[in-house]
Structure formats: C-alpha cells, structure tokens
Amino acid sequence: MADVRVASERAKFGELFVKRGLCCDVAGIGRLTQLVGRERAAELLFTGRVIDAATALDLRLVSRVVPHDDLMPTALELAREIAANPPLAYNN
Predict the structure, then answer these.
(1) Residue-level pLDDT at 23
(2) Residue 79's CB: how many other CB atoms inside 10 A?
(3) Percentage of the chain lying above the pLDDT 70 cut
(4) How far apart are CA 22 and CA 4, in angstroms?
(5) Measured between alpha carbons, how far is 75 from 64 in angstroms, rounded to an integer?
(6) Exposed, middle or buried by CB within 10 Å (0-12, 13-18, 19+), for 82?
(7) Quick one: average pLDDT of 45-52?
(8) Mean pLDDT of the chain
C-alpha cells in the first residue's frame, strides 16, 4: 500500500488469503488492481501464487529491485531525497 516500493532481489510477494480460505480486503483488492490491472490482480488473488522480485518489478508492484545488501541504504537515500523537498509538495 506504499506509494514508493523498493524491494530486495530476494523479496517474495503473495496474496495468500485464498490459501487460508479468506478474501482479500477491499482496499487491498483496489490497490492491487490499480497497480497490475484487473486480470493480473485476479490471477494473483485466486491462485495465491508467490512471485519473486523480478516478477513484481515486471508487474509494477515495486518501483525498483536492488541487491539485498543495498536495500536499506537505497531506501534511506530515497527517503532523504524526498524529505529534502518542501513538505507541502508531497505531504497531501
């Protein structure tokens, strides 16, 4: 649900509600559909398939994929870059 998503090359993603006999919440369905499209969202939700970081990048679930050891430095640098801007420009 984040606006900017940076993932480690080792990251895995899955909508596992179906594996537990549950439905995804409405906000999650809406956001996933917005990001990957209706058909891909349905496939991920209905199968409970776990995808790797490269696939998440292809589907636009993440903004970028970085080496595992670079994850926190990359995220912190991005946060610093955002925070350096006037707060009213991004804090809506």
Answers:
(1) 86
(2) 12
(3) 97
(4) 27
(5) 10
(6) middle
(7) 96
(8) 92
**Are 74 and 67 spatial neighbours (Cβ–Cβ below 8 Å)?**
no
Sign of CA dihedral 68, 72, 78, 82: positive
| DSSP classification of residue 4 | S
pLDDT score at 87: 82
In the chain, count H helices and then E strands: 4, 4
Q: Strand 50-52 to strand 12-14: parallel, antiparallel, or no bridges (unpaired)?
A: antiparallel
Q: Which residues of 67-77 are buried (b: 16+ CB within 10 A; e: fewer)?
A: eeeebeebbee
How many angstroms separate the CA atoms of 20 and 68, rounded?
A: 29
Q: Using the 8-state DSSP alphabet, how is residue 1 labeled?
A: -
Q: For 64, what's the count of Cα atoms within 13 Å in the CB-facing half-sphere?
A: 10
The token duo for 83 is: 């925070």
The one-letter amino acid code at 15 reads E
CA distance 46 to 81: 38
